[in-house]
Design brief:
By secondary structure, the chain is α/β, with parallel strands linked by helices. The chain folds into 2 domains: 36-182, Leucine Dehydrogenase, chain A, domain 1 (Rossmann fold), CATH 3.40.50.10860; 187-354, NAD(P)-binding Rossmann-like Domain (Rossmann fold), CATH 3.40.50.720. The chain contains 14 helices and 12 strands. The strands form 2 sheets. Strands 9-8-7-6-10-11-12 form a 7-stranded mixed beta sheet. Helix 1 crosses helix 3 (81-98). Glutamic acid (GLU) binds at residues 70-72, 94, 144, 146, 174-175, 330, 355, 358-359, 362.
């Protein structure tokens, strides 16, 4: 039967399953099932028409045993304290599985950023920092971009924090623009990381990626660079992407059976991932309904949009040909759909392993900020590749040894590292 868990209940359920298997003590469970700190606040913003509007903001710090809390800030109309809690929890596991010295956090604002002017956006992100600045910092909590936020917004946030602190502090925020304290390779990092993990999964399954077809959900930053990387690095073909059309206020799939040109589609896409569908159709692309991506006869599915997209209902549409699901998004698969996928024998690269390339390069960005010395792009991407390849094989080894699915194995690797850090600090 379909369950309607919210994202945080889903994150807790995933954790509980593995906690049982690991026989974790009750106090340790209590520590890890809930975030350590949560901030909920109102942000007043002067709008362009002179009125003041109040926005609801959040920051959740799930666990900082391994290092400062780390994670993005989402701007989304459907944000809630529970989506932010879930995403903060997944960040703890993500940083641990990537083996970077950071904890988990996430922030959000209930807003559709497409309805704001650039000036309103700037005042909103500066307002977010004005409320939160005493509770974040390079050694406390380091925000970054996520759905609905951009590198320019990160630049404004870093500037506001630096002004309030009275000293230039680039390491307080990552995902900043290149030239404004950002790292080369950060823009591509999450999508390319998805591709590195697909490459390793294909090698494990004896699949030749250049002979594989993929279907992608979404066309934001993660989806764009997953599509580009899948073709340019692995020689594979992406047959479709889906996207949310801002004008029509609905989602579509854009397909080309002989393979999309993601760089072309990127050139006709706005900063919110909304594709100019008329231009795409002129270029021979076919417009299909929002769910079409999930029904494609492909080898690899890459959900790279929002949480809960592969659920008890939609899981039935997945073709028998699918061998790999590479979760570019955070939490795209609900626990009941996950069970069906395991039964079908599909190899899942779980979200916090698959998409940990973004935070890994965020970590490199903060390291470069600390050194005040910047690496070439090739160096950043090759260090990312090494980290992700190691993370993939740590999880695969656990999965084979314990005979558990990749998601449970990723949890086992991550939880063991966080629990060890808590023990070493004398917390438990
Ligand atoms: N928002 C991204 C994520 O969910 C990146 C977080 C970061 O770079 O701190 O992984």
């Amino acid at each position: 039967m379909a369950t309607s868990l919210n994202a945080f209940e889903m994150a807790q359920q995933q954790f509980d399953q593995v906690a049982d298997r690991l026989k974790l003590d009750q106090p340790v469970r209590e520590f890890l099932r809930w975030p350590l700190r949560e901030y909920q606040f109102r942000i007043p913003v002067r709008m362009d028409d002179g009125t003041v509007r109040m926005f609801q903001g959040y920051r959740v710090q799930h666990n900082d045993a391994i290092g400062p809390n780390k994670g993005g800030v989402r701007f989304h109309p459907a944000e809630t304290i529970d989506t932010v809690r879930a995403l903060a929890t997944w960040m703890t596991w993500k940083c641990a599985v990537a083996d970077i010295p950071l904890g988990g956090g996430k922030g959000g604002v209930i807003v559709d950023p497409a309805t704001l002017s650039p000036g309103e956006k700037e005042r909103l992100v500066r307002g977010w920092i004005q409320v939160m600045w005493k509770n974040i910092g390079p050694r406390q909590d380091v925000p970054a971009p996520d759905v609905g936020t951009t590198s320019q917004m990160m630049g404004w946030m870093m500037d506001e924090y630096s002004k309030l602190r009275g000293e230039y502090t680039p390491g307080v925020i990552t995902g900043k623009p290149v030239g404004g304290g950002g790292s080369l390779g950060r823009t591509e990092a999450t999508g390319y990381g998805v591709v590195y993990t697909i490459r390793e999964a294909c090698a494990h399954l004896n699949l030749d990626p250049s002979q594989c077809k993929a279907a992608i959900q979404g066309f934001g930053n993660v989806a764009q660079y997953s599509a580009i990387g899948f073709k340019e690095m692995l020689g594979g073909s992406v047959v479709c992407v889906s996207y949310f059309d801002l004008k029509d206020k609905q989602a579509y799939t854009i397909s080309k059976e002989d393979g999309i040109d993601a760089r072309f589609l990127q050139s006709i896409t706005d900063q919110y991932g909304s594709i100019d569908k008329a231009k795409a159709q002129e270029a021979g692309y076919v417009l299909e309904d929002a769910e079409a991506w999930l029904k494609k006869d492909v080898d690899i599915l890459i959900p790279a949009a929002l949480e809960g997209q592969i659920n008890a209902e939609s899981v039935k549409w997945i073709s028998d040909r699918v061998k790999i699901i590479a979760e570019g998004a955070n939490g795209p698969t609900t626990p009941d759909a996950d069970r069906d996928i395991q039964e079908k024998g599909v190899f899942v690269i779980p979200d916090f392993l698959c998409n940990c390339g973004g935070v890994t390069v965020s970590y490199f960005e903060a390291v470069q900020n600390d050194m005040n010395f910047y690496w070439p792009k090739e160096e950043v991407l090759s260090k990312e590749d090494q980290k992700l390849t190691k993370a993939f094989h740590d999880v695969l080894e656990m999965s084979l040894k314990q005979e558990v699915p990749m998601r449970d194995a990723a949890y086992m690797v991550a939880i063991a590292r966080v629990v060890k850090a808590m023990q070493l600090r004398g917390w438990i």
